[in-house]
Amino acid sequence: MGKKSAARRLADNEALAYAKLIRSSPQKLNLVAAGIRGKNCQSALSELHFCRRRVAGEVVKVLESAIANAENNHQLDVDRLFVAEATVGRTLVMRRLRTRARGRSCQIIKPFSNLRLVVRERKES
Questions:
Q1: How many Cα neighbours within 13 Å face the side chain of 37?
Q2: N or C: which terminus of the chain carries fewer CB neighbours within 10 A?
Q3: CA-CA distance, 68 to 93, in Å (whole number)?
Q4: Cα separation of 85 and 6, whole Å?
Q5: Model-level pTM?
Q6: What domains sit in the chain, N to C, each tagged with a CATH number?
Q7: What is the 3-state secondary structure (H, E, C) of 62-104?
Q8: CB within 8 Å of 45: residues ≥ 6 apart
Q9: pLDDT confidence bin for 117, thresholds 50/70/90
Q10: CA 71 → CA 53, 94, 105, 113, distances in Å?
Q11: How many CB atoms lie within 10 A of CB 74?
Q12: With 90 as the cut, is the pLDDT of residue 1 above it?
């Protein structure tokens, strides 16, 4: 019996990679993701390797995964790939307490994020 397979939501010339629970705030992650939107995958990777932000390492892993998905699962040409979409979403927030003077306490907020990268193959010119 089973369920019918869902229709593919992406085009035939696109590949997707998704990372859940990245330990960074969405605002900080979006700064890195905005730097690679619309760029060629090779130039995006080189820019991320020299980026000084801590979360850039996680974005490198997701981008490499999207490139591997495009090559192995969808038989796309790696040299013509570019970052079509890079969206950041908010996930859970861990809240911790820190004790302060006079019997008071304050909250420590530890946010998490999701990252969705779509790479697309450029048309031949």
A1: 12
A2: N
A3: 31
A4: 22
A5: 0.90
A6: 14-121 (3.90.470.10)
A7: HHHHHHHHHHHCCCCCHHHEEEEEEEEEEEEEEEEEEECHHHC
A8: 60, 63, 64
A9: very high
A10: 28, 37, 52, 26
A11: 17
A12: no
User: 46 is written with which tokens?
Assistant: 């080189």
- Rg of the chain over all Cα atoms, to the nearest angstrom: 18
Which helix (H) or strand (E) segment holds residue 28: the answer is helix 26-36
pLDDT band at 88 (very low <50, low <70, confident <90, very high): very high
CB 109 within 8 A of CB 95: yes
Instruction: Give the whole-angstrom CA distance, residue 13 versus residue 15.
Output: 7
Provide the token pair at 37. 């939107």
Predicted local confidence at residue 79, as pLDDT: 95
The DSSP H or E segment spanning 59 is: helix 56-72
Q: How many CB atoms lie within 10 A of CB 18?
A: 14
